[in-house]
Write a structure and sequence with these properties.
This protein is α/β, with parallel strands linked by helices. The chain contains 8 helices and 9 strands. The longest helix has 23 residues. The radius of gyration is 18 Å and the shape is globular. It binds guanosine-5'-triphosphate (GTP) and magnesium ion. Magnesium ion binds next to loops.
Amino acid sequence: MGAQAGHPGVGRVLVVIPTYNEADNVRRIVARVRAAAPAVDVLVADDNSPDGTGGIAEAISGVDPQVHVLHRPGKDGLGAAYLAGFGWARERGYDAVVEMDADGSHAPEDLPALLAAARDADVVIGSRWTRGARVLNWPWRRLLLSRVGNLYARVALGMPVSDATGGYRVYRSAVLDAIDLGSVRSQGYAFQVELSRLAHRAGVRIVEVPITFAEREHGDSKMSPLIVAEALWWVTRWGVRDRRAAVRGRPDALARWP
Ligand SMILES: Nc1nc2c(ncn2[C@@H]2O[C@H](COP(=O)(O)OP(=O)(O)OP(=O)(O)O)[C@@H](O)[C@H]2O)c(=O)[nH]1
Ligand SMILES: [Mg+2]
């Protein structure tokens, strides 16, 4: 486990990096995390990538005791990989878990600012859409999709979060204990929205920190129209359900749905 006591004010931190075919990125991202935040541990959650990402992660782990690998049998989606990573962290008593993509879009150099914010928050979201944030090299279609998707999620779900689909986050372990992770069903962008929603409904402190987000430079995107459709479907479903429950004056019904 970690050679150091952890991050000041936060405790022992595990950065979970889900990977599927990230052979060109995994060394780079792990090295950047270790340089930017030497006290944190890293868990690469690999879905048996055909390009050998899991083996590369294993080699890194062999020479760095703060790097670990969770080998999963096959591609099962981002959400499932994160839930497995959260479980791994909880079993080992980590105080906070960080979500980070492997492709370099989430700059490890922003991690100290996220962890600093976590001293006074339960959830920290690295936001692309708050003052001071920057989005580099994204085509206008992706910018539009993210802006419109986030606007829709905010309005439909009544959450004061500017980047509910963003996947660069810190969760204090107490939050993961407070929300029912067993009820999570979504996978892609919807997974991030669902966890935002569960955290918001649990009444925990959510803080957003501006990040510099960059388009991936190596490897292929796993984003697909299906992932976008899944998010649209879930957000609409949750939004309709929330409104119905509010109209009936039974907000407690929300906790049991669906
Ligand atoms: N373990 C695991 N990781 C996944 C899976 N799908 C995606 N990932 C990882 O999740 C992270 C985000 O995936 P990306 O393909 O970059 O998706 P994205 O950032 O929404 O899309 P782009 O902006 O096009 O890069 C990357 O680290 C992927 O390797 C999966 O099924 N299993
Ligand atoms: Mg990406």
